[in-house]
UniProtKB/TrEMBL annotation:
Name of the protein this chain belongs to: Glycosyl transferase family 2
Keyword Transferase among record annotations: yes
GO molecular function: transferase activity
Source species: Micromonospora olivasterospora
Keywords: Transferase
InterPro entries: Nucleotide-diphossugar_trans
Domain of life: Bacteria
Keyword Transferase among record annotations: yes
């Protein structure tokens, strides 16, 4: 009954977002082998596997998507140094496998030469013996998902078991990447796994308010891997991310969600003892744009995927908004009331966004893109000894 009632709305929302089709952006790669005295530049992604040859089967790639204007070279060098330190501190089961460090450097306008030079500089600090193979990918700025797809193409050609990626504004706990990959292997290298995301608010009143609200609205048992630090398996890598979706972690959640299982997220996993720290929020206007983008993404995914998947996600997304979703239980009536109020605001905002897409679909004027909404402030938080709740990884039934 619910499917029949929502089918026309979902159809209209699908029509209300129709991004322009296009070929993948061109790529130019910089390849540095461990211990090499120089690099090979100018290769397209499709030629990298042939350049590197065999010997990578069963290995991992760690991808850092970023762009030239995001930070100066010194900051990019620092971030790559942090990743190399993580890759030097791996459990034996992970360290025994081949490793590829991929830096995706997107560029705009006249930044092409700077992008290539920056990748060559970053490759130099990975060239010491025993380190990972380095591949830098330069691409005209076209979004994180497009860059990840280029890295996925590379990984598929090399026969890698999985691909992990991290944001350029997070700080990792000691051994975070190693623990993430170790857990992924222990679970059969299937589906996805993600580090525990530990947010800290930026120094804005709106950011602090958002942080407090999220503390109430989040439901740890429905947490799924976040794009700031996660890994996916070879099957997902080979499929890539359809151009229609700009938010990779939400897409993989939908792709892996099992609506008929008692724990619909059993194909995903949060690793409680692998933590990444990040700053959230900004000025009120930036938060509004960011939330709007998130709601657009959720509406599109719920309209595209099968009704039973969308319905299961709806119950997780609006958990606490009884009677439209299950009531929040276990934390007392006062907490449940706060959650219901905040989820009500969330629901009204979502309806405004989703029905706006539906109206566009009905009149034939679809939205062509969901623009990225980055916060202006770009800093990394310090790691914290605060514990991560063990409820994140218990796999509680929904």
């Amino acid at each position: 009954m619910i499917e029949v009632m929502t089918r026309p709305v979902r159809w209209a929302i699908r029509r209300g977002y129709q991004p322009a089709a296009g070929d993948p952006p061109p790529t130019e790669c910089v390849v540095v082998r461990p211990g090499a005295s120089g690099s090979r530049s100018g290769l397209p992604v499709s030629a990298v596997a042939g350049e590197l040859g065999v010997g990578f089967g069963g290995g991992f790639a760690l991808v850092l998507p970023t762009y030239v204007a995001r930070a100066p070279l010194s900051s990019h060098r620092e971030t790559v140094g942090e990743l190399l330190a993580q890759l030097a501190d791996l459990p034996p089961t992970v360290a025994a496998r081949p490793r590829v460090l991929v830096v995706g450097m997107q560029w705009r306008d006249d930044q092409h030469d700077e992008a290539i030079e920056r990748l060559e500089r970053l490759g130099e600090i990975t060239a010491s013996g025993g380190g990972p193979t380095f591949v830098g990918i330069a691409m005209p700025q076209a979004g994180k998902s497009r860059m990840l797809n280029a890295a996925f193409e590379l990984a598929t050609g090399l026969g890698l078991t999985g691909v992990a990626w991290v944001d350029d504004d997070v700080t990792f706990s000691t051994g975070c990447i190693g623990r993430l990959l170790e857990d992924f292997l222990e679970r059969g290298a299937r589906g996805s796994a993600g580090a525990s995301k530990v947010p800290r608010p930026n120094p804005y009143a709106a950011a602090r308010l958002l942080h407090r609200g999220k503390h109430i609205t989040k439901t740890p048992k429905f947490g799924y891997p976040h794009g700031c630090c996660m890994v996916v398996d070879a099957e997902l890598v080979a499929r890539g991310i359809p151009d229609r979706y700009t938010c990779e972690d939400d897409y993989f959640c939908f792709a892996l969600l099992d609506p008929r299982h008692e724990n619909p997220l059993h194909r995903t996993h949060i690793v409680a003892d692998a933590a990444c720290y990040h700053l959230t929020g900004g000025p009120a206007g930036e938060i509004r744009h960011r939330v709007n983008r998130s709601l657009l993404t959720a509406a599109v995914l719920m309209s595209d995927f099968p009704a039973e998947v969308a319905g299961r996600y709806w119950r997780m997304y609006f958990y606490g908004l009884w009677p439209l979703a299950p009531a929040a239980r276990g934390h007392g009536l006062r907490f449940a009331a706060k959650k219901w109020l905040l989820k009500s605001i969330h629901f009204v905002w979502f309806c405004h966004v989703a029905l706006g897409l539906a109206a566009r679909g009905i009149v034939g004027r679809p939205r062509r893109e969901i623009p990225w909404s980055a916060y202006t402030r770009h800093t990394k938080p310090a790691a914290s000894p605060l514990p991560v709740s063990p409820t994140i990884s218990r796999g509680e039934p929904a």
